Each structure stands twice: as structure tokens, then as C-alpha cells.
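[Q] Does anyone have a clean C-alpha cell version of this?
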Amino acid sequence: MADGSVRQHDILIVSSNEKFSDSVTRALSDGRYRDVDVRKSASAARRELLEKSYDVAMINMPLSDEPGVDLAIDIASTYPTGVLIIASSEISEDVAEKVTDDGIIVIAKPASARIVKRAVRVLCALLDKLKKSEKKVLTLEEKMEEIRIVNRAKWKLIDEKKMGEDEAHRYIGKLAMDKCISKGDAAREILGGI
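[A] Here you go.
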């Protein structure tokens, strides 16, 4: 991240191929990832996702109990998790056509552990940016709500106390300052108390 701190991410690898799982787990053991868990089937992955949240789920197709596309779509639509599919080169284009609109990245085999690691890093970076954007949106929504409440309180003061608009605005600000509360809380107090 830009501020120098690195948020550690949790990764779920779903693969019936132990050699692939071991190779990718080793590649992801650079301290950037908090947990790298491996499950060998879609059903085991689904059970795991009920217990723990992951930043990235990586699915090495095919799995022992299903191809893996349905699992990828389920994860992408149900959890705040980035999804990466590794599929054979013969089917990777068809798989990508099916899942790209769900925000799922597809890499064709053979894929080196280095390529997979880079894709995981990109997914983690995108998820971090998305989380920052969501926080900004929440902050803006909170500010907009406070403005609406302050305006409602101001109009209540104008209607019921016959104050001018500037006077009502100053009254709310002074009440907030005197009580060491936000203008929004002062406005809520006015709305409940007059």
C-alpha cells in the first residue's frame, strides 16, 4: 500500500493437485499473506468459507468433485473475495467467457507459480482499493446524513422558535460546542426536544 504498511491477506487454494498446491503455497510464503489454506475439493472449500473469510480464492480446475466454475461463481457472488481460476489452455477461453462478468480472473495452464503469485497480488491490491473506496463512500454518506439532520433541526428552530436561518445555524453550532458533541448530535437533540 502507498503508506508503506502492508495488509496481510488470507488466501484459499482449492486444488486436487497436491504438486500445484505446494508450489503456489511456497510462492506465497513471503510474509505478505497471513494464511494460505488448501482444500482439495469444492465441498471442502464451501465448508471452509462458512467458517472463515478469505481475500482471494484460487481454484485449480478441475476439482475432484466438480469442474470448479460453479464454485468460483458461488464465491464471487456470495463473499467479498477475489476469485482466480487456473484452467487448462484448451478450456480457459470458454471458462473466461463464462465468468469474467462475475469479476473472476482466469489464467491458462501451464501457469508458473510466479504468474499465479502476481495475479494474487493484483487481486489483493484491487480488493484493498475497493475497501478504501467503500470507506470513503460511507464517510460521505454519514456527512450527508448529518447535513440533512442539521437542516431539519434548523428548520424546526425557524418554525417553532421563530429564529432566522443564520441564528438557527449558530444556535446548533453553539449547542454542539457547549456540550462537546457533533452538530449532528446537537441537531438530533433539538429534533427530539422541542
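[Q] Thanks! Anything notable?
[A] The first strand starts at residue 9 and ends at 15.
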